[in-house]
Amino acid sequence: MSTNIAIISEELNFPIDEGFKKVVYSIVNAFIKNKERIIFIGKYPIDIEGCFSKAIRTNKLFLNRSLFQVLNQFNPDIILYIPYSSITIASLIRTWILKAFSRKKVVVLALQPRHYPGFSKYFIPFVRPDLMLVLSGKSQRYYQSLGFKVQKIPLGVDINRFKPVSDEEKIQLRKKYGIPENKQVVLHIGHLKKTRNITSLMQIVQKKDVLLLLVTSTSTLPEEELKKGLNKAINIKIINWYVENIEEIYQLSDCYLFLVEDPRGCIEIPLSVLEAMACNLPVITTKFGGLPDWFDEEKGLIFVNNKIELNSILQYINSLTVNTRDLLSNYLWENITQQILNSIKVLIGESNVRKY
Fold first, then answer.
1. Coil, strand or helix at 329
2. Which of 32, 69, 196, 248 has the fewest beta carbons under 10 Å from its own?
3. Cα 208 to chain center, whole Å?
4. Taking the model in full, what pTM does it have?
């Protein structure tokens, strides 16, 4: 029997070109494939096959009659709220308003950690969701210390879309995107901001035979000072337009590099790391967010300290037998949404028992 799920997320719109949007869009589609009955509510009209969607311009606190009329008509078994700003105090207040006016249980998926000032402990007990889904053990422990009911889950990847290609196909893709065939291409995809630790990535371009390929998000404006510095650098190519077939960029590359340390720089499980692994690239990454909770250092996945000499690692990678794709068997979107669905059904069951 299908479950009626209302998914609310403010900022989902096309193009689906960054981590937050990819998570929401992938979860909605995976629920649809699982034959769940879904309504999606956000600020923008968005066409998702098999899903009824409603664009509602709410205020910052979700105090909107149309929102609760739509929820009342759909009559969901549960509300899944995925806030764009993650679980800020404002998001907690919106969660409480959703619960109070819909009289439904609310599950929140928090993609980034947020920490609260000391005075907030007096009202947090009144605005907690019925369940908080987080991506790392550190976040799980923090929110549990505040009395939240918390479950740790990973994120997923589409291995049918993100997959390795032959050497011949790789050469053709480099020609398509104007990438030199004789360079070791090291890739990073994400926002052009200091929180992404872009300056550390630039260490690798000291070698003439290495090209740093940066693909930047079209959803957020780049930081101008950083952009100017990159434009002056040699051996760096920036793709600053929307690439519909982003899997091709991974497929033409030799290595994926993720040196983010600031928790504000990315969602706690970077989807770009999973997508690179799905394309069977060697991945050099910091122990960011939930990555070390879900993955060990093996098969070409290398955890580094930001101060380590990157050039020596790149030379070492050439001698590695890489099987990062093999690490993803449990990290498919259908598996992740099944975990979420199982948690939802437990909550629904608990609610029904209390009503009885």
1. coil
2. 69
3. 33
4. 0.93
